[in-house]
Amino acid sequence: MTNHWSDIQHSDCALIMGANPAENHPISFRWLTKAQEKGGKIVSVDPRFTRTSAKADVYAQLRSGTDIAFMGGMIKYALDNELYHKDYVVNYTNASFILKDTYEFNDGIFSGYDEPTRKYDKTQWAFETDEEGNPVKDMTLKHPRSVFQMMKNHYSRYDADTVCSVTGTPKEDFLKVCEAFCATGAPDKAGTILYAMGTTQHTVGTQNVRAFGMIQLLLGNMGLPGGGLNAMRGESNVQGSTDFGLLYNNLTGYLGAPTMLHPTLEAYNEKETPSAGYWSNKPKFLVSLLKAWYGPNATKDNEFGYQYLPKGNKNYSHINLFSAMYKGELEGAFLFGTNPVVGGPNAGKEKEALGNLKWLVAADLWETESASFWQKEAGSNPSAISTEVFLLPAASSYEKEGSVSNSSRWMQYRWQAIKPKGQSLADLEIIHEMYLHLKDLYKNEKTPAAKPFNALDWNFGKGNHPDIDLVCKEINGYDLTTGKLVPGFGALKDDGTTTSGNWIYSGFYPEEGNNRAKSRDNKDTGGGNYLNWSFAWPANRRILYNRAAADLNGKPWSKKTAIIWWDASQKKWVGNDVPDFVVDRAPTDPGGTNPYTMLKDGVAGLFAGNLNDGPFPEHYEPFESPVANAFSSQDSNPAIQLFDGEFNLKGDYKQFPIVATTYRVSEHWQSGSMTRNQEWLSELVGHMFVEISEELAKEKGIKNKDKVIVSSARGEIEAYAMVTKRFKPYTIQGQKVHHIGMPWHFGYKGFATGDTANRLTPHIGDANTTIPEYKAFLCNVRRAN
Amino acid sequence: MVEINLNRRQFLKLSGATAATLAIVELGFNENEAKAKTKEFKIAKSTVTPTICCFCGVGCGILVHTKDDTVVYTEGDSDNPINEGTLCSKGTTIRQVYTSEKRIEKPLYRAPGSDKWEEKSWDWMYKTIAQRVKDTRDRTFVEKEDGITVNKTEAIASLGGAALDNEETYLLAKLMRGLGVVYLEHQARI
């Protein structure tokens, strides 16, 4: 989230799309309700009339996978009706930049497309530059090749009638949503967008988010209290685990993981460091990380240990990982509190893949479906599966201590309430012990494999239980010349004299005895930002890009949307938050009107040339769709990776004519292992069900509570039919299309059991993130008997 | 109950950066009077520890009441500015994460081809796992590829971590990258 939970109360309009917070983030709704009480509006756009929709002022249905059509229509509405915030767009975005004539868009394809590799040459999506390399601009926005005019042209095709024929939204509802949300383009209004996996789990997931970003920039909502672009995260520390680099492509703090394209530290720095913007400091963050990981073994002479890091040469993300496992290319795997046999896409295939491992280590509180994939009740033949499985009992969140980062980037501390149950142990200790045992095996070896592992600097106290305080300090970082903790990432250097395990968190532990994650002063320090409660990365800042809430002169756009402003007498930025700006850089100084400090040009990108599938979001149909693309002859995203054979089974709409999506219920959590193993929650929602419209039920002769079979190209599951008014048939390009939905929490373990929805979902991912397309696929439904 | 809440709030504020636990009885709460009003006042003499909910990413504060080596009660932390004491159905039942009979309490091992778990000691598990990791890693380790130092193994994967604490994810990332693991993924992708 660029903003935070309690900040939502300042919103004049909250557009909730691809999310259902009333169900899945229930307590967040307190702040939405507060906004509503102050006169703000809630808008819900969802394929299903959800609990969030029930609380909304405006509801519009849309077919799963058509968000870009919807948002493209909203962009056109804002432009046509001149509802955008002109000063903001001209000065704080790249709307004025002139595009080179190599950039083109034609029938669903951007320039630079190479069909055999399904990749774009992105250098063709560039700006005209002057002799000094600065972008050429037209501040009147009238130049035909300005970003503004090119954007206007791109979305001219997204008229309300075409949009609604694709999304299936009643036109009057679509227009009501546009009217309500675009009203926040007024300088004294702020609108927020709240989204979750309904947005990201598509083959166009990244571009869905981009479309949200574009409308927020057009309406001048970024950086404002009550505004922003806010991803509601589904796990208590999925923000933190992402920040700390548990994805193949990132080290900590969003430093890209080295690949074979970066053979040396010098090559990495040259390729990955922009010439301007805050990321120009990247070498300082990477060297400080290397010093944290390799300590005295990281020296100037050995590129600070850069060569110890593994260098990949391909996409190692979840689907590719399971594809490799299925082919027998992997021998061993660790699962830390994760359950892909229920939560992974095409879960039946992922279960089979686990059987091709030699060994599997699972650390969990429960005997999950994944740890017990070899059992008869999993549909497996144990004697035919030779995988060794190690199931390690892990302690729960309050049986240990440590911090977690919520969606708002607030790093809050959990104290230990009770010792771990039975023989279970904290994951911190399990990981530490694993290191110690491996170190013991490698200590006398000098082999190529031993060398990088033995180079790790691992000093977390003596004995089996690691000292968490030492871990915290290593994350924050030290000044090695003084031995003291660094006060923040501004102090980090690229000469090997500082360390920091995760630069974006640097400053949470600025001096001995002051772990700011433990801060519990809940006095409102102004604007509901609670600056002394916990620590928000980066630099305890609560609203990102907050310089953009002030005009060119440093004055708030309005009194109501004020957060920080330039105080000429003190010669610094002051207000209710930590400024997201050099604190003494005056508006009249060079760069003083460039609020997007992380970016090279200092302004936000309405046009973004760095994504794999195009600089403007364009509508493509989901991988499995009941209709052809009405916007171009490209049906699905041309830049997605296609998988082979059994990992790419695709359903045809004639055999599987119904659009399906998955969702969650308030009483269960993710793959269900944490909730289906509890008595009360199991009793509250005890059965797998599929929600179908009254119209579809009638066509199929299905009654409420009947057992039905849902089938897709990947498999079949059984569920109880829940016949509701919450789904309605859609009219898509004149054709009637049914839409169903089902929860994905169920498996065969725990008190509440049921078939796994992900047995139906496809192995296909987004063009940038490879996040699987769980949220739009084709299926069919029939009575079970 | 109002008095209890005020006391608790005052205490947790005072506690600042130090471990925040308390016995309610120490705050001058009249235990006898409470007992007179209710026969089974389960949280009397309980220790209260603040935590953050383990479910979604809202980050609600929860107070865990423990007594006699078990969790007797949990409630929303009214000091936490996000939830101000309120909780959803999952946060409300967080006690059962501890008390559920389904919790595994011992390390379990499944041998190749076997149809059952066997209980093993932690030490045996660590030693055997470390041996398996080393065996796979040493056989599959690639030091150089096309003349470039790559120091990786593509035969070991690590998945998960969104339910771990920050400090745990940090150690996990350090260990796995240190081993040369490139198939490093977690729930943010799925």
Q: How is this structure best described in words?
A:
- The complex is a heterodimer of chains A (785) and B (190).
- Chain A is of the alpha/beta class and 785 residues long.
- Among the domains of chain A are: 5-9 and 30-199 and 209-228, Dimethylsulfoxide Reductase, domain 2 (3-Layer(aba) Sandwich), CATH 3.40.228.10; 645-783, Barwin-like endoglucanases, CATH 2.40.40.
- Helix content of chain A is 22%, strand content 15%.
- In chain A, the strands form 9 sheets. Chain A has a 6-stranded mixed sheet with strand order 21-23-22-27-20-26. Chain A has a 5-stranded parallel sheet with strand order 3-2-1-8-9, with helices on both faces.
- In chain A, α4 runs antiparallel to α7 and α4 crosses α8 (171-182).
- Chain A is globular.
- The two termini of chain A are 47 Å apart.
- Chain B has 3 domains: 2-99, Single Sheet (N-terminal domain of TfIIb); 105-138, no CATH class; 141-190, no CATH class.
- Chain B is built from 6 helices and 9 strands, in the order αβαβββααββαββαβ.
- Chain B has helices at residues 2-15, 31-37, 89-92, 95-99, 122-140, 166-179; strands spanning 22-23, 47-52, 61-67, 70-76, 108-110, 118-119, 142-145, 148-160, 181-185.
- In chain B, the strands form 3 sheets. Chain B has a 4-stranded antiparallel sheet with strand order 1-2-3-4. A 3-stranded mixed sheet of chain B has the order 7-8-9. In chain B, strands 5-6 form a two-stranded antiparallel ribbon.
- Classes of the chains: A alpha/beta (785), B alpha+beta (190).
- At the A-B interface, α11, α14, β10, β11 and β12 of A face α1, β2, β3, α3 and α4 of B.
- β12 of chain A pairs antiparallel with β5 of chain B.
